UniProtKB/TrEMBL annotation:
Domain annotation 1-deoxy-D-xylulose 5-phosphate reductoisomerase C-terminal: ranges: 143-226
Name under which the protein is recorded: 1-deoxy-D-xylulose 5-phosphate reductoisomerase
UniProt keyword Manganese, yes or no: yes
Residues covered by the 1-deoxy-D-xylulose 5-phosphate reductoisomerase N-terminal domain: 4-129
Organism of this sequence: Brotaphodocola catenula
Cofactor(s) essential for the protein: Mg(2+); Mn(2+)
Binding-site list for Mn(2+): 147, 149, 218
GO MF annotations, alphabetized: 1-deoxy-D-xylulose-5-phosphate reductoisomerase activity; manganese ion binding; NADPH binding
PANTHER family with a match to the protein in the record: 1-DEOXY-D-XYLULOSE 5-PHOSPHATE REDUCTOISOMERASE, 1-DEOXY-D-XYLULOSE 5-PHOSPHATE REDUCTOISOMERASE, CHLOROPLASTIC
């Protein structure tokens, strides 16, 4: 029986991972980690019987410890607890589904403990890809992508070892504001940005999808995962979310992965790779679909994508600044403290302010994040 640990078990990817576990019945969950949702985490503990569970908040951890006192489970907290969860001895695969740069240290720790990584925390590669990918190669551990687009690329590369990639075609739905002007975007409210046309995701990533910053992060992630240059990754808007991404080889052949917009497919593929399993759910009906359309992204209106290419090309600590500024700004927007367009304005300001460090170590990456937050706290954006 395969054994896994899940970091971020109460979030969108974490809960869907547990659905896959339940549907298959032959995976044991040895450890779970969550932020503060101890009500859901307690339910997960009682259902899946992990030996270890982590809550980021110490007070919440104490409350959970009392709530599950009748069970044989160890409750830990904070970064030390997250590291312990990531390195739980019995786990073979660690699903990293936490949001943000908090995932860097646990991912590295899990790899050093010999765990394969089912990666749903794109920020780890965006900010520390220059550390993560060489380490994975050195240690002989697998990085199995869970993002739908990167899983699609991974699947499109199967059987093509040694064949040269010409470019990666990274698809995007275009989000809820595809075709809008900047003037129209100026009035966007939180409720508008949380209405994704195709995917059901967490709040932060849904906002990122609407600004296309998420696609920018995915371009940088693909750059590291598949060892290609930034300019070899081309974003193509595919509004129906049927083609999840494509790979073009040097002979001009293009291989694509298609499917319904269901995150359980890439999750299950990562957990059982290279085996495919039956997955309940809808199937594509091409006759009913009629057509699949494509268009180029508007990088002048959605300039967060343009800034991502700049950050990725320049490299060093600048992708960290891009990511940190976005995390900070999205948090402010969700609290209704800044207007929608200020998200990308804050990213651009932070990038302009930063003095890039080449090949930063983990401490320098985290310091760049702290400095970005401090810089943005001094800025004023009026609603």
């Amino acid at each position: 029986m395969k054994k896994i640990a899940i970091l971020g078990s109460t979030g969108s990817i974490g809960t869907q991972t547990l659905e896959v576990v339940e549907q298959n019945g032959d995976i044991e969950v040895t450890a779970l980690a969550a932020g503060s949702n101890i009500v859901l985490l307690e339910k997960q503990i009682r259902k899946f019987h992990p030996v270890l569970a982590c809550v980021w908040d110490e007070q919440k951890a104490r409350e959970l410890r009392t709530a599950v006192a009748d069970l044989d489970v160890k409750i830990v907290s904070g970064m030390d607890g997250l590291m312990e969860t990531a390195t739980q001895p019995d786990a073979e695969i660690v699903v990293t589904a936490v949001v943000g740069m908090i995932g860097i240290r646990p991912t590295i720790a899990a790899m050093k403990a010999g765990k394969d990584i089912a990666l749903a925390n794109k920020e780890t590669l965006v900010t520390a890809g220059h550390l993560i990918m060489p380490l994975a190669k050195e240690l002989g551990v697998k990085i199995l992508p869970v993002d739908s687009e990167h899983s699609a690329i991974f699947q499109s590369l199967n059987g093509e070892k040694g064949n040269k990639i010409h470019k990666i075609l990274l698809t995007a739905s275009g989000g809820p504001f595809r075709g809008w002007t900047k003037d129209q975007l100026a009035g966007v409210q939180v409720e508008d940005a949380l209405k994704h046309p195709n995917w059901t995701m967490g709040r932060k990533i849904t906002i990122d999808s609407s600004t296309m910053v998420n696609k920018g992060l995915e371009v940088m992630e693909a750059h590291w995962l598949f060892d290609v240059e930034m300019d070899q990754v081309q974003v193509v808007v595919q509004p129906q979310s049927v083609i999840h991404s494509m790979v073009e080889y040097e002979d001009g052949a293009v291989i694509a992965q298609l499917g319904t917009p269901d995150m359980k497919l890439p999750i299950q593929y990562a957990l059982y790779y290279p085996q495919r399993r039956f997955l309940p759910g809808d199937r594509l009906d091409f006759a009913k679909m009629g057509k699949i359309t494509f268009e180029a992204p508007d990088m002048e209106v959605f300039c967060g994508l343009k800034l991502a290419y700049e950050a990725g090309r320049r490299g060093g600590s600048l992708p960290t600044v891009y990511n940190a500024a976005n995390e900070y700004a999205v948090g402010k927007f969700l609290k209704r403290e800044i207007p929608y367009l200020a998200i990308v304005e804050m990213i651009e300001s932070a990038m302009e302010h930063h003095h890039t460090i080449e090949n930063p170590d983990v401490e320098q990456i985290l310091e760049a994040e702290r400095e970005t937050y401090e810089f943005l706290q001094m800025m004023q954006f009026n609603m």
